[in-house]
Specification:
Layout: E1 3-16, H1 18-21, E2 24-38, H2 52-62, E3 77-82, H3 92-108, H4 114-128, H5 136-143, E4 147-150, E5 160-164, E6 172-178, H6 195-206, H7 210-225, H8 228-239, E7 244-247, E8 254-259, H9 263-276, E9 281-285, H10 290-296
Antiparallel strand pairs: 1-2, 2-3, 2-4, 4-5, 6-8, 6-9, 7-8
Length: 297
């Protein structure tokens, strides 16, 4: 089995859901994804219920890019190694798109910048039906460290309105509460009664307060999803001295941010959820900033 090309990306967490106000922002997390383009099927099963990888290859072809020399679409196969839990709001689809398009770029020696990769990823996600907006903000967060506030209706590069490195991994730990399957499929109407919370998240981003934005966005999301348990889980974290907490993406995962200065707090929060929510698993990670990215290379 030959690896024709390899691409990497990472997961992310929402700071502002793009379906609420028309602007979106996500922040990179240290949840790595590697996608390989292969000349024969991978020995490891690829879990792709939405046929996203098929749409990625079709989008590449539709945009006029070549396939690896001597190969047809039927000759190409994928291998995926992802640390991102699927369908939890942690941007697994956007990350796979970014990594897969990078693999295609390397396999064909077609030089593409991050903005090109993000644009392709948005179109592939819309075609696969895994995104309401194209998730341009998610793709940026999966392709680069830090966060970007994005207008998804604008051309990709021009659509970046604000950006920042985000909280440092030395200062903060992110605990992800991984819950069951997503129960509610959102519509744009679901956001309407909760726009005030999303406006607060947008204002916080404009002031450079990413953790405040994460919390306000989470409050808006539990309202839009009518997720009473998610609201309680986020509130429980504040009782236990978390700095920020909220649902990510369209849920159901809850992201909790805790200061690294208080390791007993991290242990207490972990123990709290382990005891009270037997069907919830906890994933510990951190934000991915430019500094973190350099250290991981």
């Amino acid at each position: 089995m030959a690896v024709l090309g390899k691409g990497m990306a990472h997961g992310a967490c929402s700071l502002l859901h793009a379906a609420a106000l028309g602007y979106g922002a996500s922040i990179a997390l240290d949840l790595p994804v590697t996608v390989r383009l292969l000349d024969r099927p991978s020995k490891r099963d690829v879990n792709d219920p939405d046929q996203l990888l098929k749409h990625i290859l079709q989008q590449w072809f539709d945009d006029g890019h070549p396939l690896p020399e001597g190969f047809t679409t039927e000759d190409l196969h994928w291998g995926v190694n992802s640390k991102i839990p699927q369908k939890q709001g942690l941007k697994s689809s956007a990350a796979i798109c970014v990594a897969a398009f990078r693999a295609l770029s390397k396999a064909t020696e077609v030089e593409l910048g991050d903005a090109d990769i993000v644009g392709l990823s948005g179109r592939a996600q819309l075609a696969a039906g895994v995104s309401m907006t194209g998730s341009i903000d998610d793709a940026w967060a999966c392709a680069t460290p830090g966060w970007k506030l994005v207008d998804p209706q604008a051309p990709v590069e021009e659509g970046v309105l604000l950006q920042g490195d985000g909280p440092t991994h030395e200062d903060w730990t992110v605990l992800l509460l991984i819950r069951g399957e997503r129960e509610h499929i959102l519509t744009f109407d679901d956001f309407e009664p909760h726009l005030g919370a999303f406006q607060q998240a947008l204002t916080a981003l404009q002031e450079g307060k990413e953790l405040v934005a994460l919390t306000w966005n989470g409050r808006g999301m539990v309202g839009a999803l009518k997720d009473l348990e998610g609201r309680k889980m986020a509130n429980d974290s504040f009782v236990n001295s978390a700095r920020a907490a909220g649902l990510s993406g369209s849920g159901p995962a809850v992201a909790i941010v805790v200061s690294n200065q208080f390791q007993p707090t991290i242990e207490r929060i972990t123990s709290w959820y382990n005891m009270r929510y037997k069907d919830v698993s906890i994933l510990k990670t951190t934000f991915l900033t430019n500094e973190t990215d350099d250290e991981l290379e």
